[in-house]
Specification:
Layout lengths: L7 H13 L10 E8 L33 E8 L6 E6 L1
Antiparallel strand pairs: 1-2, 2-3
């Protein structure tokens, strides 16, 4: 998925935020983020065609293994000022 670019007003507001907090004491702030990854939909991104010669359908190098269901992985991480960061992950 492609994210939209920032318009001039959004860029100006971000720059103003940076200037305002340039000398802020960030030692008590923790930045966190999380993301989910789905492994089941990987085949949807591949080409839908098949490129092989007649009679090659069941050769081992032409067979793509499939699993009944994919997995969902949640990854969470944190960035701290003066301590090592931390991360957690969970499989569903």
């Amino acid at each position: 998925m492609k994210k939209p670019t920032l318009n001039p007003e959004q860029k100006a507001r971000r720059l103003a935020f940076c200037h305002h907090y340039q000398n802020y004491d960030w030692r008590n702030i923790i930045f966190t983020d999380e993301s989910y990854f789905e492994t089941g939909g990987l085949g949807a991104r591949r080409a839908r065609g098949v490129l092989r010669h007649a009679g090659e359908a069941y050769r081992p190098q032409n067979i793509d293994r499939r699993f009944a269901q994919g997995a969902t992985v949640m990854f969470w991480g944190a960035i701290l000022y003066d301590k090592p960061g931390m991360y957690k992950y969970k499989f569903k």
